């Protein structure tokens, strides 16, 4: 019995959500008095791999076979399931990222394991029951799910578990599993990365614009505020439906669910479908000219005012704060 | 081209979510159920891809008789026929297992799901179907085009996108961008009544997860309204400590 964490990299670097998942997996290993092994797949440099030790991995399995450089979920799931068997791991943890969503169900079937997707807290283990809290109803609620299978797969919601540095070191080993050629039927033709932008699902701060922004030409204000805060940008559904912003930025019940430390809603009314995707944000700031906008009911801080007056002032104030820091 | 679209029956997006029986049951009292919005997208694309006699679109739902209104809606939108697998959908594994058993006996060229059901939000059925049927799967796609032997999909990745080609048959979970949902017209609604809707019995399978209870998010305190941006930044820095 042990715990295996899939350490997902983006372009050879581990993201914060990966370290969160390692910290989370470490805590589960400690709950069960067992060890934590990480598995990394792709082109990741040795010094990056070593960082996994600092978050609690005792061992790192490094899979660097050329065939596996790019993510193909069928093949990656096979590799991770093989590693779980080789390590005798009965709990597999991963981040509930875009890739994680492709992997977790496949690994679950391979290991005959129940899958808890989008966990928001450590499992509770009492009276022989293993339960995990996860988001449900698009962020409008949480479900506590009991996993009854011997093996278990848990994917962690980004920003839901804090980083814990253990100061440990990991032993790095190469891992060369057999992979079937039929696991590579999906062929990657092109990868387009906009590396300069903060990725929305992982972002600690999100600046989001709604119809109150009036048109795409005014998004420079949202982008500048996001830029000075190191934030990701997002939008409401009508904004992406109108083509002002890409669909990938739409948050809410039918878009991305985010759980940043700070969510700034600018010119968004706060419809129930929008709130569903952002309600687990730690602090919510609302800027809206209508004091009756429903969003103020769930906000922590608010300014009743015109976005075109407030945003330039807010950008200046943040710049001043950053300059004095 | 034979396309299977998996559809789920979910609470309307405006539903205020509440629970009964000591927070162990979802309170369906007064709740309207709808076709899952992402499944509407998958269905719309399936209809576009088979338009003009290029194929058929079967919809399938794992559910009890109460889901038939949603299935008829899918038929009204333009599906050719429907299969209801008669069982309460216990969890994603249960649903995927039922659909996989059906597909093993009735193969399709393309199996589409939504990216997630808006009640359970697992994003699991597509990947589980792929694994159970030993087919490639992509859980969240933003675009889908097909040629004779393969599909081309675009999937979102953190900070970018990826384009993949995949030979048929494969499984894909559809999100926005794949198609605009279609609204049924009068002819569709009339025609839906006579389209075939077969009911097949579920197969027995051991479940591996159970929802024990539900929680609603803790209510937030009163909003602090400020009049100027400097004050807001000061509060976010010194009080909330988030910037
Ligand atoms: C099935 C379904 C699913 C949906 N899913 C989602 C979802 O996932 N995400 C989502 O966001 N929505 C979703 N919606 C839509 C949702 O119901 C709302 O229509 C939407 O969130 C409203 O977007 P908005 O707040 O940008 O626009 P509006 O409701 O038009 O609000 C604009 C706000 O801007 C304010 N404003 C205007 N001008 C200014 C100004 N100069 N300065 C300051 N404030 C100003 C106004 O007071 C108003 O509050 C869904 C709807 C349906 C039916
Ligand atoms: N009961 C069901 N019957 C048929 N398909 C379903 C059912 N539940 C979920 N699905 C499909 O699986 C997708 C993902 O669901 P989930 O894994 O629950 O998020 C949905 O968008 C549907 O396409």
TrEMBL record, chain A:
A single BP term in Gene Ontology: fatty acid beta-oxidation using acyl-CoA dehydrogenase
Lineage: superkingdom: Bacteria
Co-factor binding details: Binds 1 FAD per dimer.
Family as reported in the entry's similarity comment: Belongs to the ETF alpha-subunit/FixB family.
Binding site for FAD: 211, 267-274, 288
Cofactor: FAD
Gene3D superfamilies on file: HUPs, TPP-binding domain
Domain Electron transfer flavoprotein alpha/beta-subunit N-terminal: start-end pairs: 3-191
Lineage: Bacteria, Pseudomonadati, Bacteroidota, Sphingobacteriia, Sphingobacteriales
GO molecular function: electron transfer activity; flavin adenine dinucleotide binding
Family matches, as Pfam families: ETF, ETF_alpha
Annotated keywords: Electron transport, FAD, Flavoprotein, Transport
Name of the protein in question: Electron transfer flavoprotein subunit alpha/FixB family protein
Automatic annotation (TrEMBL), chain B:
The entry's keywords: Electron transport, Transport
Highest taxon, organism lineage: Bacteria
InterPro entries assigned: ETF_a/b_N, ETF_b, ETF_beta_N, Rossmann-like_a/b/a_fold
Electron transport in keyword set: yes
Protein known as: Electron transfer flavoprotein subunit beta/FixA family protein
Pfam family, one: ETF
Domain Electron transfer flavoprotein alpha/beta-subunit N-terminal as annotated: residue spans: 23-202
GO MF, one annotated term: electron transfer activity
PANTHER family (UniProt xref): ELECTRON TRANSFER FLAVOPROTEIN BETA-SUBUNIT (PTHR21294)
């Amino acid at each position: 019995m042990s715990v295996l964490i899939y350490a997902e990299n983006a372009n050879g670097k581990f993201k914060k959500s990966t370290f969160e998942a390692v910290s989370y997996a470490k805590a589960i290993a400690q709950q069960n008095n067992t060890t934590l092994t990480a598995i990394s797949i792709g082109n990741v440099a040795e010094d990056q791999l070593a960082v996994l030790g600092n978050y609690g991995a005792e061992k790192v399995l490094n899979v660097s076979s050329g065939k596996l450089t790019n993510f193909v979920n069928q093949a990656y799931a096979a590799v991770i399931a093989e590693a779980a068997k080789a390590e005798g791991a009965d709990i597999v943890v991963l981040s509930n990222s875009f890739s994680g969503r492709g992997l977790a169900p496949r690994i679950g079937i391979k290991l005959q394991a129940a899958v808890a997707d989008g966990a928001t807290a450590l499992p509770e283990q009492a009276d022989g029951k293993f339960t995990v809290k996860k988001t449900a109803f698009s962020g409008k609620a949480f479900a506590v799910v009991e996993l009854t299978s011997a093996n278990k797969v848990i994917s962690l919601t980004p920003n839901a578990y804090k980083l814990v540095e253990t100061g440990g070191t990991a032993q790095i080993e190469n891992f060369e599993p057999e992979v079937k050629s039929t696991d590579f039927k999906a062929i990657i033709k092109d990868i387009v990365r906009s590396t300069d932008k903060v990725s929305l699902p992982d972002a600690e701060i999100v600046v989001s614009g709604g119809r109150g922004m009036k048109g795409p030409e005014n998004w420079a204000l949202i982008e500048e505020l996001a830029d000075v805060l190191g934030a990701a940008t997002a939008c409401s559904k009508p904004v992406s439906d109108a083509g002002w912003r890409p669909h990938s930025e739409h948050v809410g019940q039918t878009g991305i669910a985010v759980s940043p430390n700070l969510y700034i809603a600018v010119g968004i009314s706060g419809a129930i479908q929008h709130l569903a995707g952002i309600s687990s944000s730690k602090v919510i700031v609302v800027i809206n000219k209508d004091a009756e906008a429903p969003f103020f009911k769930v906000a922590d801080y608010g300014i009743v005012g015109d976005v075109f007056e407030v945003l330039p002032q807010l950008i200046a104030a943040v710049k001043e704060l950053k300059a004095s820091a | 081209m034979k396309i299977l679209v998996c559809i789920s029956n979910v609470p309307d997006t405006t539903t205020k979510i509440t629970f009964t029986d000591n927070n162990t049951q979802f309170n369906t009292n007064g709740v309207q159920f709808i076709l899952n919005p992402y499944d509407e997208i998958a269905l719309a694309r399936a209809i576009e891809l088979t338009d003009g006699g290029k194929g058929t679109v079967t919809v399938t739902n794992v559910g009890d008789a109460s889901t038939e209104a949603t299935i008829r809606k899918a038929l009204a939108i333009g599906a050719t026929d429907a299969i209801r697998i008669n069982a309460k959908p216990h969890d994603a594994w249960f649903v995927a297992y039922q659909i996989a058993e059906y597909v093993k006996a009735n193969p399709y060229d393309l199996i589409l799901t939504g990216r997630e059901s808006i009640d359970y939000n697992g994003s699991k059925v597509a990947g589980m179907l792929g694994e159970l049927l030993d087919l490639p799967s992509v859980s969240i796609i933003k675009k889908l085009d097909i040629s004779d032997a393969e599909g081309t999909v675009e999937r979102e990745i953190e900070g970018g996108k990826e384009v993949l080609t995949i030979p048929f048959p494969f499984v894909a979970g559809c999100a926005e961008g794949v198609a605009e949902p279609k609204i049924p017209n009068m002819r569709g609604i009339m025609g839906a009544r006579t389209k075939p809707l077969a009911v097949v019995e579920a197969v027995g399978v051991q479940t591996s997860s159970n929802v024990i209870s539900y929680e609603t998010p803790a209510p937030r305190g009163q909003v602090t309204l400020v009049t100027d941006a400097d004050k807001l930044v000061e509060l976010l820095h010194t009080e909330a400590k988030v910037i």
